[in-house]
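dumping this here before i forget
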Amino acid sequence: MRQLIWAGVFTSIIIPLGCFRRSNQISNQNQTDISVDCPLIMNARTPRTRRFNRWMLRKIRGYVAQFESLERAAEIHDKRKRLKKVEIDESLEILYQVYYSDERLISLRLSHIVMALGQMHPIDYYETINYDLKKGHDLRAAEVFRRGYLKAFSAYSKEELKNKYDLSAEWANEWLKRGMRPYEDNFKNWNLVPDGILISFEDYQIGPHAFGQAEMIIPFQQLKRVIRSDSVCASFIR
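structure:
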């Protein structure tokens, strides 16, 4: 049985943008469970807020369609190969957390929780969004940071993780060395918050699945040299 649930609730943190409307759609097909929290501004009366709603809906619907397509392809493949049916409930769950919002910026994080054929346990991965309402798009790192920001992220994160977690296990050094390198892919999940830059690490990035998904805030005071003076977050460090 496939259960598809759409929902969205968002309480703005700084300047009220209204709350996000909740809608539910349930259909019964196959054996796939899909549960999605979709953040949509309820009282979206301006072109900017309406544009954000359209953009977010396209994104979420795209993820649902992609998941359904991959699951159908996997089922067709298994039938052609006459493989034994695996008793597993495939599922997709998308949740969100809003970290900051005002009349210019919405900073939130999507959590994708996927259970598909061939997996031993659900895989969790993040997608961070820093949406500039004025520009009408999700901000790229180059619009916020100067060159060298990855080195700043890496240096601070290494020390913070060592102070915050017990990393005495044998696996720790190798995982940290790989997951903390100043590469864009290692620090792709960042959110703008009033106190600094919230960094979210992926499952298996800096430790095994049992270690969990660490996160930390790098204070703006540590990033003054790499924050663009014309960026949307420049006002946070004045």
